[in-house]
From TrEMBL, chain A:
Species name: Arthrobacter cavernae
Entry keyword Isomerase: no
Function per UniProt: This protein is a component of the acetyl coenzyme A carboxylase complex; first, biotin carboxylase catalyzes the carboxylation of the carrier protein and then the transcarboxylase transfers the carboxyl group to form malonyl-CoA.
GO terms, biological process: fatty acid biosynthetic process
Keywords of the record: Biotin, Fatty acid biosynthesis, Fatty acid metabolism, Lipid biosynthesis, Lipid metabolism
Annotated NCBIfam families: PRK07051.1
Protein name as it appears in the record: Biotin carboxyl carrier protein of acetyl-CoA carboxylase
Matches recorded under Pfam families: Biotin_lipoyl
UniProtKB/TrEMBL annotation, chain B:
Signal peptide location: none
Lineage: Bacteria, Bacillati, Actinomycetota, Actinomycetes, Micrococcales
Protein's recorded name: Biotin-dependent carboxyltransferase
Superkingdom of this protein's organism: Bacteria
A Pfam entry, by short name: CT_A_B
Organism from which the protein derives: Arthrobacter cavernae
Amino acid sequence: MGTIVSPLPGIFYRKPGPGKPPFVNEGDTIEVGQTLGVVEIMKQFTEIQSDVAGILESFEVAEGDMVNPGDTIVVVRES
Amino acid sequence: MSFEIKNPGLATTVQDQGRTGHYNVGIPQSGSMDQYSAELGNALVGNGPGDAVLECTYLGPVLVTDADAAVAVTGAPVEVKVNGETRPQWTRLQLKAGDELSFGTIQGGTRYYIAVQGGIDVPEVLGSRSTYLLGAIGGFQGRKLAAGDVVPVGGAGAGGAAVGQGSGLPEVDTVPEEFRPVFAKEQSVRIVLGLYDHRLTDAGRESLLTGEWKVTPVADRMGLRYSGPGVEWKEREQPFGAGSDPSNIVDAGYAVGSIQIPGGTQPIILHRDAVSGGGYAMVGTVISADMDLVARAAPGTTTHFVAVSQDEALVARKELAELKTKAWEALGARR
């Protein structure tokens, strides 16, 4: 299992904007460098990208929840 | 010499001790949010306390130096890397031309500082090299750093930023543990009540001083917003010129560090890039000695506000100045 952690604090969003579809969903095949969500802090959105390839197993943070640096955002079953 | 910015990080800016004397015309002091950490970075590399540094927020930059350079990273705990290898924080590092400085994930706090011998050599604006982002003045072209920027570094004693401020490196190359600040998830912040705390009910004042307040993610160089139990205001007929909410007053000047509570729900501490006035009642002001402490508070930090007298605030200010002097002496650095 690979885990993708947040490098910064802020509010986590799975969508690029309101009313838009999520970047990725559970069960999706993801690649290295693929955007999984964004974290908003100081009016800036930082993309959270995967550093592993595999199947997205689960989101550990819900849409709109606060994350701290080092918090696991996504668990990936590596391929 | 210069630093080439490969990746700017989230919000990396040039800062020094700030631009004082223009708050009356709406220009805030700016400067390093955590002055203590920035100054000790300067001490490690033989600069004066007023030399400019790079302030890194949560996500640090990746930069390459084009010449040999003495640097030090102080402030919030983070993994410091030179060409990918971990190096200590709060310690002087000797970079060779072409070396790459980068950072891991921040482990607490909010901001860390890169000090370099000679200082960051951008032009002074109104007497300071600090970046004021909202006003787009000072620092590197009045903005945060971007990829591809080439940031000039002053030559020690060669016409650069460090002239007359001592060019030699101090004997000791590491800040002793006892002089490093703590980056805790819980803080007690000392405040002097006023000018408008008389607008709070007794229960409201009680709530401010005994409640547990948490830093929200809405926190930047202008101010930090806290969530918590809220406060209660006294009923009154709002005076002419004041807004309709009981937290509104007729516009007044804001002190640096003052605490306003719009609507009575979420207190905001105004910090170094704050507006200089407005129409919210200031219930208290963070004492100057604790402003660096507030700057170190990451989102989620639990905060208790402790009321002190103005005399106690002045003693705390003196103690902080003495601590800084002792820290510089411990390094054998010249101020």
